[in-house]
From TrEMBL:
Primary gene name: yidC
Bias type Low complexity, positions: 277-287, 295-313, 325-362
Chain ranges of the Membrane insertase YidC/Oxa/ALB C-terminal domain: 32-252
Bilayer topology: Multi-pass membrane protein
Residue ranges, compositional bias (Basic and acidic residues): 267-276
Role noted for this protein: Required for the insertion and/or proper folding and/or complex formation of integral membrane proteins into the membrane. Involved in integration of membrane proteins that insert both dependently and independently of the Sec translocase complex, as well as at least some lipoproteins. Aids folding of multispanning membrane proteins.
Protein name: Membrane protein insertase YidC
Compartments reported by the entry: Cell membrane; Membrane
Bilayer-spanning residue ranges: 30-52, 174-192, 213-238
Span list, region Disordered: 261-376
Keyword vocabulary terms for this entry: Cell membrane, Chaperone, Membrane, Protein transport, Transmembrane, Transmembrane helix, Transport
Family annotation (PANTHER family): CYTOCHROME C OXIDASE ASSEMBLY PROTEIN COX18, MITOCHONDRIAL, OXA1
Biased composition (Gly residues): 314-324
Amino acid sequence: MLDWLYTAIAWVMKQWHALFSTFLDPAGGIAWALSVVMLVVTIRILLFRLFVKQVKSQRAMQEIQPEIQKLRKQYGSDKQGFSQAMMALQKERGVNPLAGCLPILPQIPIFIGLFHVLRRIAPGKPGLYSWDNDLTDQAARAKLFTAPIAASFNMVGEKERAILELTGGSYTGIRVVAFILILIMCFTTFYTQKQIQKRSGPVEGQAATVQKLLLYGMPISLFVSGFFFPILVLLYWFTNNLWTLGQQFYILKKLPPPGSPAALAKAEADKPKVDPKLLAPKPGAKPVRLKKGSATPAPTTDLATPGESPTGSPAGGAADGSGAGATPSGRGSSGSSSPGTGSADGSSPGGRPAPNRPRASGGSAGPANRGKRKRR
């Protein structure tokens, strides 16, 4: 049923092997190992758009989490109403929960197909899946660090006998290479899951439990099943993890998780910068100088209220409180000025000229700020 998939995987490997055979030994394990590496690169490039959609979907889900929490509190035990409200919210925001699985789903059949193709390779076997007899036998006899690329840590039956004939009946080289690749595969899988969790941001509840299971469960399950994978399948998984790590690093730099220091720094850097020239006054306009601690310009004139002079004195009266019969010199009926204020002609009580002070409009005598004190 899946022969079309097995044929497609074998054909891609065949094309890359033909390219590397132009400058490498076609029967050597390096040419076949590079063919598997480029198989990973080909698949991941085709799936890159799905990966970007997955990241955007995860970011959108994180942004609507506060609203989902409000809906959970609003509906309480009404699970059906909560599900309908959440689906409506996701549709309104354009969030697709299944988008997070898009890059993973196509990789599962590809991995199974590669495992199936390499499992059937053995010396003396007929050609399969677009490979002729010579190419199949060449792949079965190729070695990577003294281990045949089709060999596994544990083998049984006819394939075990055929592979061990290539190594003189010894498992040592096969198991050393396989065990090292298994350890590297498990370590890179664990580190990749850590990066995925860092990319998706902090989660709570059931999602946190699932993340913890994936973080520790996947490396453990791969360690157990890795003893039955062919050498090239282990190399495929290791290369796939390296590609994922590089992709994660790129995405974390371009699309950091919301609320993270990197996201805040990116938002600050993306803010439009204001040109200082735009804040400067136009040519010919007088710049407005603000007082210290004041957000508006300081008033330059006093506004008189009805019944008062501009300095705050009652209309028709002198500024110093004397009646309408005050003389131009500012003296009252007694002919003397108020103590400490000096005469209105600008001289002090001792005969010394007083410093120039601003006078209010209207010719009234006295300090210019008397009206201000009165209003306070």
